[in-house]
Amino acid sequence: MGKLANAGKLAVAQVFQTVERMDAIVNAMTGLGGVRDKGAQVRVDTARVPLTSPEKDILGRYDGYAVSWFERLSGEATLTGWDIKIGADVLQQFEEVERRLKITKTMRLALRGALKDGASLILMVTKGSGNLSQPLKLGKVKDLQALHIFDECEFNVAEYENDFRDPNYREAKFWQIHPQANGSFSAPQSAAGDIFSKGQKVHHSRCIYIPGRELSHRLRHVNQGKDDSYLDSAWDALKDMLAIDQGGAVLAQEMKQDVIRMGGLEAVDAGALGDVMRDRMKTIIAGKGLLGMIVLAEDDVYESRAATTTGYKDLKAGGKSTFSAVSGQPEVVAFGATPGGLNTDGEAGRRSQDRTVATVQKTHLKGPLEKLYTVIIASMKEEIGTWRIEFRPLGTLTETEKAETRNKNAQTDRIYRQEGVLSPEHIRNSRFGEDGYQDIQPVETVEEVPTDPSRAFQGPQSRTVLEVVLQVATKNLPRSAGIGHLVHLFNIDPDAAEEIMGEVGTSFFVEVLPEPAPDVKTSAEDLSVQGGKDD
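Above: the chain's sequence. Below: its structure in token form.
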């Protein structure tokens, strides 16, 4: 017995010897105040494992929060599309190939899968591509025939690039693709008749990788060459939301509770009490079901009590805030909450969502699209110069916003016209052409635009200009000073000021005559008065 007691004391001492606390009392029975106090510190769970592919599939198909999250983000990122531009010009020769390959739909589905699973892979199938394990040579690309999407569980890295001089260093050099739809690749024959011997091992130049939540090279290697799913980081918040919703469903089912107090049971024998209560309950249930009424004995009492839901609203609001913060979606967007009153949460939330979508476009779509269109342009066998991908503006303007935008554009157009930057014909043709209201088109050739007559001096300005010219003409102001007045006071071009001044101050002057002496006239009345005074 003594040995067991000593062993227990030693075990307790070993538990608490790691930390000495001077501000609390350690309870040896519960561990409070020591290293086992769960309120004293939070340790990271290093044994945590990511969600499995079946779990992510179920969440991505049936969980409403996850489905709407990924559908909304991938849909908005590809809804308005993108343009291939050279300078300010939009190239139109890609419309047919984009429609044939369904590029917008392909990118949307691949992005949605990458957000859910952590990665997606698009295989570019070219005409006469030969062995898929060989690098894709752009100079020999004849035609891009198809784009095939593979989920995260259908591919993995077969080999990494180990040459540090290669730009693709530490990235996948070969992908191993194993489709689960029909089990394997088909094996088409080349012109020489040989079968693709390595159809499943594909060189990275023939694939487009769409990332999920991006990881470092080290963690990506641990993760079979792929990134993380956004569900892994949001699972705790998503799980809490599901638990809160299930709790609310239970509360809704128990919102009304029936209470029956049976009287006269004190006279019933204890052995027969169960049978009596059972018979009465059967009578009550039968009456309620058949007659739609409660049949009670003389001393029975029936009550209906409402269950309380105090605190559920606050609990739900807290869960929404947490999920919104983790998923990066404003509550107004994620849950469709319409702000009331005069607050601007809805507008701010929409702007925040647009920034998130624009970020996803640049980090998840721009690089893959550049790789795709590089192959498409190479297949066209034509030089188009330096091009770039530019995403179109997000969102749809309301009628009020459209009117405000047009009003601002009209003010800008008027300034361009007044300053001689653009002609009225160019503004009219750009804004109101065959395609409806559009942006100002670039000027192909620089033309001399006539000055707007409305820029002429009017009213006090014209009088002040004439006064300056008159001062120079009368030699009260030097010619150079007069031109300086016109340039700096009225913001006139020096050449224009010279034209306004003309010959004034050089060969043209105005002589100012002296004012005549006042003519003194004496009226008859004044003379009579003066004469009367003399008399």
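The first helix runs from residue 2 to 16.
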